[in-house]
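User: Teach me something about this protein's shape.
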Amino acid sequence: DTANAPIFGIDAKGRVNEWNNKAAEITGFARSDVIGQNLVEVYITEEYRVSVKEVLDDALKGKEASNFEFPLFTKLQTRVDVLLNATTRRDVSGNVVGVIGVGQDITERKRVEEEKSRVAKELQTFIDTANAPIFGIDAMGLVNEWNNKAVDITGFTRDEVMGQNLVEVYITEEYRVSVREVLDNALSGQEAANFEFPLFTKSEKRVDVLLNATTRR
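Assistant: First, the predicted structure itself:
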């Protein structure tokens, strides 16, 4: 009852027979509300009923599950994301009599992950649609970012440049040392602004570029 994780139990027919204080706190449903109710049919949203039932049915056959993720909806209809470990419950003779589910409320973690994903998508959209050529390299100098404007200016598609060594393949020999130095410095945390060098396009046309090299962490 006093565990800091939501714990519930069901019998062999899927009816709730255990509901600790944390489960009551997270869901808003008191123990008296849920005891005897069918857990899946009453408290799991329709889209997740099949998968949750499958996990619990497996546990009733002795096939336990860990880190199964699903949403619960509280008494106030707010969503709570739960990471569940489902453990087979046996009597003194070793017969399966139910399942104990030990959960972890990961709602806040999921919110943070979703926010990070949203920001990353926004940043990628900004990079792709920026009105300036933007490229990225990894620590080995291999291209890992090449936006639409870089494609427009150079004629090289993203597929053509990804994984290529930027300096060795796309910078003319006379500028390779200086461009490599700027990029190596940026990889060491020493950023550069307004560094001028020429790029040659796919059609061998010279394009003069003013570069800001920013360390990516």
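Now, about its shape. Residues 40 and 49 are 6 Å apart (CA to CA). The mean pLDDT is 89. If you'd like, I can walk through any region in more detail.
User: That's plenty for now, thanks!
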